[in-house]
Write a structure and sequence with these properties.
The protein has one domain. With 142 residues, the chain is mainly alpha-helical. Helix 2 packs across helix 5. The longest helix is centred in the last third of the chain and has 22 residues. It is built from 6 helices and 3 strands. A 3-stranded mixed beta sheet has the order 1-3-2, covered by helices on one side.
């Protein structure tokens, strides 16, 4: 798959979803509007995976509760939001994998690297793995 095909695929998905794309210094999905920011024009498979992931957040944005959105905006590093935040990250990456034209090792490594950083942040907020796992267990029914 060429970079042109990847870019066209991202643009088509965004258009079909009604999502605006802008270039910035980091990848992010805007919680209250149909807008993603990506940090490049897709120079490699890692960039393509990241753009798909941000679109995955947009695809799943209706699942975010108002309570989660408010807590996230007030304190994105809060211990209380990490279990739900991890769930949203998993859902966005799952969407990215399902909607990729193809998924390869470089893209998988980007997923693993990103998810490792989420876990690291959660462990920092919770202080230990046991408490983090207890927090995650509270999401079982959601």
């Amino acid at each position: 798959m060429t970079r042109i095909e990847q870019r066209a695929h991202i643009l088509k998905l965004a258009k079909d979803m009604g999502v605006r794309i802008s270039l910035g210094h980091t990848n992010r999905s805007h919680m209250y509007e149909k807008h993603i920011q990506i940090d490049s024009v897709i120079k490699n498979d890692k960039d393509y995976a990241g753009a798909l992931h941000e679109l995955g957040h947009q695809a799943n944005r209706d699942k975010d509760t108002m309570s989660y959105k408010l807590r996230f905006l007030l304190d994105p590093e809060s211990k209380e939001i990490y279990p739900e935040r991890l769930k949203h990250e998993i859902e966005a990456w799952a969407w990215a994998k399902r909607n990729a034209i193809e998924w390869n090792e470089e893209m998988e490594q980007e997923y693993i690297s990103a998810f490792s950083s989420y876990i690291h942040g959660a462990l920092h907020a919770y202080g230990n793995l046991d408490d983090l796992l207890k927090g995650i267990a509270t999401l079982k029914g959601s």
